[in-house]
Amino acid sequence: MVAIFSGKMLRGEPVTVNGDGKQTRDYVYVGDVARMSALALETDATGPVNVGTSIETDVNVLAAMIRDAAGSRSEITHGPAKGGEQRRSVVDVARAAQVFGWRPEVSLREGLGRTVEFFRTKAAAR
Length: 126
Description:
Blueprint: H1 2-10, E1 15-18, E2 24-25, H2 30-41, E3 57-58, H3 59-70, E4 76-79, H4 94-100, H5 108-124
Parallel strand pairs: 1-4
Antiparallel strand pairs: 2-3
Helix pairs in contact: 1-3, 1-5, 3-5
């Protein structure tokens, strides 16, 4: 969703949010995920570990944040809901902190800014 919305908004195209946009997800910056992966390679720890922020953000807020990061005026519209879509999703990162000393370091706003800039640079290079 972040990549699709970023690309469309950088081109000034409208984006469509499925349903009411109040479905939530736990968005984590890819650099934080990579850092956690590197930590996991350096240990013998076993078992599941959640990687996220433990913060729910709804799709309406996400779309508005991407539009702000892109400096776009793209219209955000709502389409039909996707059947069977999960309404809420957030993870508990306590085990990642306990076992690996890991916590996310990049805020959603900062991560979206970096991501939008990546797509802006990529588009300019074409």
